[in-house]
Write a structure and sequence with these properties.
Elements lengths: L1 H27 L10 H17 L1
Length: about 55
């Protein structure tokens, strides 16, 4: 477990770097990117999607 905790930051960095690159590409194409979301609203939407998927 300790080894996993030690390498986690190094494993996540490429993902974060790639995300920043993708966001920059979207902005360059004129897209609106919202970085700070209202987390409560986000969780509400996710719950609706989970219910929809469970009902399928």
């Amino acid at each position: 477990m300790k080894a996993a905790q030690e390498v986690a930051p190094y494993q996540r960095k490429p993902g974060r770097d790639n995300e920043e690159k993708q966001i920059a590409e979207l902005v360059a194409k004129g897209k609106i990117v919202t970085r700070d979301i209202h987390k409560e609203s986000w969780y509400d939407i996710i719950e609706i999607l989970r219910s929809f998927i469970a009902a399928s």
